[in-house]
């Protein structure tokens, strides 16, 4: 979204990505004092609907497009209620802004949110050129993170630690989260003569509205209104936030985790608002490891954005942040099996099918399928990253590439050769096999955790379950040596899967001292 401010004091154009909600407030407040008219603008940039960079998948999948269209509609409604509107255009932001400036004649400023990665920065540069050409002031804001870039306790972004825990400890000790800004009750109107424009339909991007799969873990709509309702539900109506740490590794249903990511990715909700609500909840209800852990995870999100600022285009390169030579393969058959959920490894297949059908996958699932693609199949990690870029409803360039680099062992992970054991993970987090049964119906007649290791079942057991391996369900495309340890093993009969916490008396302080390493704390069990 872009805001344009015409006139003197003027018209302001504000926009670019969908407004980060507190930026929108900041901009609109600023505009109240500095402009007679304000044009909040959202551009559907055609470049976002082309192909991914290396492997040419569609860049924006149907679930994300649907969510985006809903978010734009919601923002328009919100702005209308306050006396403004959202101007919507299809086109490159720099061209659209050029046309508006030309049409209006006197624009004072163009404001937008600053992004961190190449394609977005290129758009910013193009916008700057247009503004310079027309003698229009540029006003930029930073707002996607919990901690403001300027408040980081590192003298320069190049000094950002390469290890998350060091980053987290430093910001927690030395930086403050800025308060959110109130949205003005009444907004300056659009400049006369500016058409608000139609919100496009999916068909204009060559897509159809996707069907909602009843099994989805993310049955939500886009927009700030829905984001706030989700927070109200997760925090205040159900107190789910107070048990987040125990449930966050779940796989089925909406409530095992916050599901804030899709709204955060588009800027429909602000991490600072979530933070304020957590603090309020901690004061009024309870403060525990779970309430802290939501902030801990939001800090991962911050971290990957700052990593992108530090490393620039290196986050997209094959050798990653570590400039490490790895003999990645590009086997299209293996990749197709992975992306279509036909690897013959049920835990992987279930997750990949969920992603394709709904645009969402749990964090546990993502960690596993990424490890499987990079470590078990040895495929170019960017194939996986771009597949996620295409499909994820919560796709966020920094979080996606940061996590993929991490999983591939060429990002911000200080330890070598981390690898998930698909069978152990399946048994730990889907002990009874219910998740696999939900997404891989052709093997649903296999009872219990044995569903994770079909190839180890007797022929009689397989035929009783109606399975002909290699025919009705694939044989595994790969068998890792370490899996055999978990065959015929009784699954963990725990209500909740392990979360790496062994000592129930661990205090939040102790937990604060663990990083993502925490996920890997039982590393002897991983391989
Ligand atoms: C390979 C891979 C790719 C990923 N791609 C994305 C992506 O494109 N966009 C995205 O938002 N997240 C991504 N994640 C991180 C994480 O899986 C999702 O943020 C999370 O599953 C979203 O569900 P939730 O909102 O219920 O998360 P919750 O568990 O409720 O976490 C709360 C919030 O913390 C943040 N968060 C949690 N874990 C992470 C993490 N590992 N990295 C960064 N932020 C985190 C998210 O903003 C999330 O909404 C990826 C993880 C992996 C392993």
UniProtKB/TrEMBL annotation:
Cofactor requirements of the protein: FAD; (6R)-5,10-methylene-5,6,7,8-tetrahydrofolate
Annotated FAD binding sites: 244, 394-396
Biased amino acid composition, Basic and acidic residues: 492-527
Renumbered residue ranges of the record's region Disordered: 486-527
Keywords: Chromophore, FAD, Flavoprotein
KW Flavoprotein (keyword) present: yes
Site entry: Electron transfer via tryptophanyl radical: 328, 381, 404
InterPro entries noted in UniProt: Cry_DASH (IPR014133), Crypto/Photolyase_FAD-like_sf (IPR036134), Crypto/Photolyase_N_sf (IPR036155), Cryptochr/Photolyase_FAD-bd (IPR005101), Cryptochrome/DNA_photolyase_1 (IPR002081), DNA_photolyase_N (IPR006050), Rossmann-like_a/b/a_fold (IPR014729)
Record text on cofactor binding: Binds 1 FAD per subunit.
GO MF annotation, one: damaged DNA binding
A GO BP entry: photoreactive repair
Keyword presence, Flavoprotein: yes
Superkingdom of the organism of origin: Eukaryota
Main function: May have a photoreceptor function.
The family this protein is said to belong to: Belongs to the DNA photolyase class-1 family.
Name the UniProt record assigns to this protein: Cryptochrome DASH
Organism: Chrysemys picta bellii (Western painted turtle)
């Amino acid at each position: 979204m872009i805001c344009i401010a015409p006139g003197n004091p003027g018209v302001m154009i504000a926009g670019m990505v969908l407004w980060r909600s507190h930026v929108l407030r900041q901009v609109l407040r600023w505009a109240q004092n500095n402009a007679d008219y304000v044009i909040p603008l959202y551009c559907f940039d055609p470049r976002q609907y082309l192909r991914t960079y290396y492997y040419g998948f569609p860049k924006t999948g149907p679930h994300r497009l649907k969510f985006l269209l809903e978010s734009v509609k919601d923002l328009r409604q919100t702005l209308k209620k306050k006396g403004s509107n959202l101007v919507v255009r299809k086109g490159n932001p720099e061209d659209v802004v050029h046309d508006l400036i030309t049409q209006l004649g006197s624009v004072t400023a163009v404001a937008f949110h600053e992004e961190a990665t190449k394609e977005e920065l290129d758009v910013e540069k193009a916008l700057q050129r247009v503004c310079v050409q027309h003698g229009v002031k540029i006003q930029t804001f930073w707002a996607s993170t919990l901690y403001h870039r300027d408040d980081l306790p590192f003298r320069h972004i190049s000094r950002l630690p390469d290890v998350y825990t060091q980053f987290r400890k430093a910001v927690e000790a030395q930086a403050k989260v800025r308060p959110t800004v109130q949205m003005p009750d009444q907004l300056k109107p659009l400049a006369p003569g500016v058409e608000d424009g139609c919100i496009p339909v999916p068909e204009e991007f060559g897509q159809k509205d996707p069907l909602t799969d009843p099994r989805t873990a993310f049955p939500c709509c886009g927009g700030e209104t829905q984001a706030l309702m989700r927070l109200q539900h997760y925090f205040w109506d159900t107190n789910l936030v107070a048990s987040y740490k125990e449930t966050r590794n779940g796989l089925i249903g909406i409530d095992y985790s916050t599901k804030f990511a899709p709204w955060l990715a588009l800027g429909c909700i602000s991490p600072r608002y979530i933070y304020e609500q957590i603090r309020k909840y901690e004061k009024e209800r309870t403060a525990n490891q779970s309430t802290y852990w939501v902030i801990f995870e939001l800090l991962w999100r911050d971290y990957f954005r700052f990593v992108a600022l530090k490393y620039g285009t290196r986050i997209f390169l094959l050798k990653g942040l570590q400039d490490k030579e790895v003999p990645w393969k590009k086997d299209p058959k293996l990749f197709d099996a992975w992306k279509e959920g036909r690897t013959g490894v049920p835990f992987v297949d279930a997750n990949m099918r969920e992603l394709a059908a709904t645009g969402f996958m749990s964090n546990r699932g993502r960690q596993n399928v990424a490890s499987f693609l990079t470590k078990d199949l040895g495929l170019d990690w960017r194939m996986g990253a771009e597949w996620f870029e295409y499909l994820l409803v919560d796709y966020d360039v920094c979080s996606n590439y940061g996590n993929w680099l991490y999983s591939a062992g060429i990002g911000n992970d200080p330890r070598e050769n981390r690898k998930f054991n698909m069978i152990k993970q399946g048994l730990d987090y889907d002990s009874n096999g219910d998740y696999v049964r939900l997404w891989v119906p052709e093997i649903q007649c296999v009872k219990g955790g044995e569903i994770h290791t079909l190839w180890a079942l007797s022929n009689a057991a397989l035929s009783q379950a109606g399975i002909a391996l290699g025919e009705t369900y694939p044989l595994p495309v790969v068998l890792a040596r370490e899996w055999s340890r978990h065959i015929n093993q009784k699954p963990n009969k725990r209500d909740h899967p392990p979360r790496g916490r062994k000592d129930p008396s661990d205090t939040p302080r102790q937990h604060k001292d663990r990083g993502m390493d925490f996920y890997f704390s039982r590393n002897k069990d991983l391989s």
